[in-house]
Design a protein that fits this description.
mainly beta
Length: about 300
């Protein structure tokens, strides 16, 4: 089962694209994450909600601009604008990890519209990694008590971050970047990627996938995003990407991918839901004409 955060609420769908349940139909849902046996969503105007179907309870952060949610077991993390990361305990208490504001360069963070947004979070046991538009990447190895900016060689307009051990990926407005030393040094990776506005990322068993459009949204009016999905092996010393799908109309945004093992799903701004069962080698569109999909999660 999969949860889709859309412009018209939350949809829970099957691998065949059939809708199993829906909720919050009058809300734009920006992000979604599984928390235990329930779903957490960030919806415009109401903050974070936790529940399913027609049963939702308020979980705080009302009035905040929430860009992303990520879970680690029963812990929930929220990325905000202005850039901040908060952690929700199982008790329901939210705590801001304020040491992030002490990293080098924090005072220079910004976005094209004003305040910077913390738009991507990797949460693993013993490690947190965040991506900021525009501010780059920062990491913590002590549950957020201390943070370090890791931006050497990185284009700091970051849309999404992903991790495969010590290898990190950052999808940016200036293309895909990769670090093989936990973020200490970054290189631009463009072999096989023929469009430069990278956005979504997914890590599968042995592969990395990235979505990329022809340019930023203001350039889409004439021909649309012209988006595509690219895939490369993690086992190769040099990343060589192959275009695996471009037969969809919408854009796959920064939270448009989710992956588990060889299963990868993607949602587009045109309401298309794509599924791959072969680690991203091929995709099938199993549902279309849905509301615009902002984020996806595997339940």
């Amino acid at each position: 089962m999969f949860a889709l955060a859309t412009d018209a609420g939350i949809l829970v769908v099957t691998q065949d694209g059939e809708t199993a349940e829906s909720g919050l139909e009058n809300s734009k849902v920006r992000s979604v994450a599984p928390v235990g046996d329930r779903i957490a969503v960030a919806a415009d105007g109401v903050g974070v909600l936790i529940g399913s179907g027609d049963s939702w309870e308020e979980a705080g952060l009302d009035g905040q601009t929430i860009w992303t949610l990520t879970s680690l077991g029963n812990l929930l993390f929220a990325g905000l604008e202005p850039a901040a990361i908060l952690r929700r305990e199982p008790s329901g208490t939210w705590t801001e990890l304020t040491a992030l504001s002490l990293v080098d360069g924090y005072g220079e963070w910004h976005s094209p519209w004003g305040p910077p947004d913390l738009c991507s979070i990797v949460a693993e046991p013993g490690r947190l990694i965040v991506g900021v538009e525009v501010g780059g990447v920062a990491g913590s190895l002590d549950d957020g008590l201390n943070w370090k900016a890791v931006n050497n060689g990185l284009f700091e307009d970051v849309h999404a971050v992903a991790a495969a051990g010590e290898t990190l990926f950052a999808a940016t407005g200036g293309g895909l970047h990769c670090s093989r030393d936990s973020g200490e040094n970054w290189t631009w990776e463009a072999d096989g990627i023929d469009r430069g506005y990278t956005q979504g990322l997914a890590i599968t068993e042995g592969h990395v996938l990235v979505s990329s459009a022809s340019g930023p949204p203001p350039m889409w009016e004439a021909g649309g995003p012209e988006a595509a999905i690219f895939r490369a092996s993690l086992r190769s010393e040099a990343l060589a990407f192959e275009k695996v799908s471009e037969g969809f109309e919408g854009n796959i945004g920064r939270q448009g991918f989710a992956a588990s093992g060889d299963l990868v799903v993607a949602g587009t701004s045109a309401g298309e839901f794509l599924v791959s069962t072969d680690s991203g080698k091929s995709f099938a569109t199993v549902a279309s004409a849905l509301p615009a999909i902002n984020a996806v999660a595997i339940l």
